[in-house]
Every structure is written in C-alpha cells, then in structure tokens.
Amino acid sequence: MDNTMVDLSQYDSSFSLFNKLSRIVWNFCYWFLFRPFFLPFFKGWRRFVLRSFGAKIGEEVNIYASARIWAPWNLEIGDHSSIGPKVDCYNQGKIVIGNHTNISQKTYLCASTHDFTISNFPLVLKPIWIKNQVWIAADAFIAPGVTIEEGAVVAARAGVFKNVEAWTVVGGNPAKKIKQRIIN
Fold first, then answer.
1. Cis before residue 174, ω within 30 degrees of 0?
2. 40 pLDDT more than 80
3. Which residue of the set 100, 126, 157, 181 is catalytic?
4. Are 75 and 55 spatial neighbours (Cβ–Cβ below 8 Å)?
5. Is-catalytic flag, 114?
6. Which of 3-17, 32-46, 73-87 has the highest mean pLDDT?
7. Cα 152 to the chain's mean position, in Å?
8. For residue 28, with 0-12 CB atoms within 10 Å meaning exposed, 13-18 middle and 19 or more buried, which class applies?
C-alpha cells in the first residue's frame, strides 16, 4: 500500500505529550486512590475517582479495585452495571457499557489495534459497544470494534471478534452462536 494515499485522520494521537502526561497522573491516582479496597465506602469512592478523570459512570455501578482501567476518559458505563475483578479495560479507544450489564472476572476489553498495512503500524481506535442486560462471562476477550447487542451472553473464555446479536448466547474462540436466549 502506498502510504502517501492513506487517510491518517482515522489514526490516534495517544502518543501525544498531553496524553502521556494524563496517563502518568492517572496511573499514580489509580495505584493510590482507586486500588485501595479496605474501606466499605470505596465502591462509591472508585466511581468518584473515575468520574474525576472524565469517565461517565451511572448509578450503583460496581467496579472492583483489581480492575484495570487504561484511560477513564474513554469509559462510559450505565446504571447498575459491574466490572469484575481483574478485568482489563484497555480503552485507548472508547468503551461504552450499558445498564444492568456484568463484565465478569479476568475479561479483556481491547478497543484499539494497529494498522499492519502501513510500515510503522499506526494505532487505530475501534470502540467497543456493550449494550444493556449483557453478561460477559469470565476470561472472555472482546476485540476492537465489536458491538454486543442487548441481552446477549458471552460464554467464559470466548474470543469475540465479530458483533453479537441481541438475546443470543455465544461461545468458543472465535465465538459462535450457541443458542437464542428465551426470557420468561
């Protein structure tokens, strides 16, 4: 591919000085203000810390102290949702999580990739959209640019590289539809 004909507006500036300084400040605050878990009010405190760094956090959201949020300013999470223990939210690109949604332990959410067709592999941001009433089970991988529609269930250890239809259960690597969810 001829690099002179590539539209570079789609590529990210995550390596800017401002971004680097923001990440340094966030990492310091993450370790000293977000991670401590020994007091019962820290659930609300973690929401406060994330909001202070630009995250849009709904009501009664539970984000575990061991969850890793790469860039809180790129995170939106709706009411009554949860990000479980040791979830890695690698959100150089935006990650939007709906209401009443659970992201189970050790899940990896990856909202960026690199363009391998260009010699210097520029960073490409691809947002992840996880809609309302979704359950992503333990140790799943959600790839850049994926949308998981309302009511879907992603099985444990699934690798999701394509969009997931509403009210379906998917599993495997790569994830495939297992069955339709029937709500009583």
1. yes
2. no
3. 100
4. yes
5. no
6. 73-87
7. 16
8. exposed
AA letter at 173: N
Q: Where along the chain do its domains lie?
A: 14-178
The closest alpha carbon to 124, from 107, 145, 109, belongs to 145
Which amino acid appears at position 130 of this protein? Answer: I
- pLDDT band of residue 36 (cuts 50, 70, 90) is confident
> The pTM is what?
0.88
Predicted pLDDT of residue 68? 96
DSSP code at position 11: B
Closest CA to 10 of 163, 129, 114: 114
Other C-beta atoms closer than 10 Å to the C-beta of 52 total 12
Higher pLDDT, 118 or 15: 118
Compute the radius of gyration of the chain from its Cα atoms.
Answer: 17
Per-residue pLDDT at 123: 86
At residue 176 the predicted structure's pLDDT band, cuts being 50, 70 and 90, is very high
Cβ count within 10 A of residue 180: 10
CA 32/CA 77 separation, integer angstroms: 22
Q: What is residue 4's predicted lDDT score, i.e. its pLDDT? A: 47
* Topology, domain 14-178: UDP N-Acetylglucosamine Acyltransferase; domain 1 (2.160.10)
